[in-house]
From TrEMBL:
Its main location: cytoplasm. It comes from Weizmannia acidilactici. InterPro entries: FAD-bd_PCMH, FAD-bd_PCMH-like_sf, FAD-bd_PCMH_sub1, FAD-bd_PCMH_sub2, MurB, MurB_C, MurB_C_sf, Oxid_FAD_bind_N. Its cofactor is FAD. The lineage of its organism: Bacteria, Bacillati, Bacillota, Bacilli, Bacillales. It catalyses: UDP-N-acetyl-alpha-D-muramate + NADP(+) = UDP-N-acetyl-3-O-(1-carboxyvinyl)-alpha-D-glucosamine + NADPH + H(+). This is UDP-N-acetylenolpyruvoylglucosamine reductase.
């Protein structure tokens, strides 16, 4: 299809009509890196997501779904086809002890909402920078808690463009992954089953975890969060630190001096810098300790 035809059709599918051409994705990632999207849209309803995905499937146009771009590296060549950023789908509501949040809501905001409702179980998520969609996609976790511990169901868009509600047991949660990724599904919302609690105790726990995060993580710089999964029997950050890699820099990206499990953009860094530094760290840790570091961060796009 011609670019003008795709543009015209997409603008008719999205209520706001906002479709950006050749938009730099570095504006929307936590690393402040990433090339351009051919077509970038911000759906405001589930139906707009569904219509756009069906349009892409029917017309053979590639499409990519993004949340808030936290645990993500988009390559410098950008992304071909249609990119949907779901950060305008942010509604959070509750019924009894259940909280339902749309995919674009920040999981931090969901944990704060739970505090207001005096519901306990999501305190661990008070420092996770990702969206609800991303959190379900990778079974996000921190400080001993994981999404699988509190999720009861998810509304997803299937790879064929149909909507389907899945129970937790349908999602095959494992450490930092779920069947959502494997099945090519798109999270539209998640429902979390929590327990009544004392709001003072909930807030105290959240304050404690926030302090731990702020004191240990390099939040003063753009980053993609924790770069590597925890290898069995080890801690990735400790292996990287013991390899003498803290402060190692390629281009504008550096292994954080504050927390070796993070890589920060200290100025002018590119996605290629990130990828090359990741490869260097993996190679060095493998040589020194015989441990393969698997990335937790998702790397997508074109070189």
């Amino acid at each position: 299809m011609a670019e003008k035809t795709i543009l015209h059709d997409l603008r008719s599918l999205v209520y706001s009509g906002e479709v950006l051409l050749d938009e730099p994705l570095s504006k929307y990632t936590f690393t402040k890196t990433g090339g351009k999207a051919d077509f970038l849209i911000f759906p405001q309803t589930y139906e707009e997501v569904q219509k756009t995905v069906r349009f892409a499937i029917e017309n053979g146009v590639p499409y990519t779904i993004l949340g808030n771009g936290s645990n993500l590296i988009i390559k410098d060549g950008g992304i071909r086809g249609i990119v949907l950023i779901l950060t305008r789908l942010t509604k959070i509501s509750h019924s009894g002890n259940d909280i339902t949040a749309q995919c674009g809501a920040a999981i931090i905001d969901v944990s704060r909402y739970a505090l207001k409702q005096k519901l306990t179980g999501l305190e661990f998520a008070c420092g996770i920078p990702g969206s609800v969609g991303g959190a379900l996609y990778m079974n996000a976790g921190a400080y001993g808690g994981e999404i699988k511990d509190v999720l009861s169901s998810a509304l997803v868009l299937t790879k064929n463009g149909g909507m389907k509600r899945l129970k937790k047991n349908d999602l095959s949660f494992h450490y930092r992954k779920s069947s959502i990724a494997e099945n090519g599904e798109i999270v539209l919302e998640g429902t979390f089953s929590l327990e009544p609690g004392d709001d003072r105790e909930i807030k105290a726990k959240m304050d404690e975890l926030t302090f731990l995060r702020e004191s240990k993580q390099p939040l003063e710089y753009p980053s993609c969060g924790s770069v590597f999964k925890r290898p069995p029997g080890y801690f990735a950050g400790k292996l990287i630190q013991d390899s003498g890699l803290q402060g190692t820099r390629i281009g504008g990206v550096e292994v954080s001096k504050k927390h070796a499990g993070f890589m920060v953009n200290v100025g002018g860094g590119t996605a290629t810098d990130y990828i090359n530094l990741i490869k260097l760290v993996q190679k060095t840790v493998k040589e020194k300790f015989g441990v393969d570091l698997e990335t937790e961060v998702k790397i997508i796009g074109e070189d």
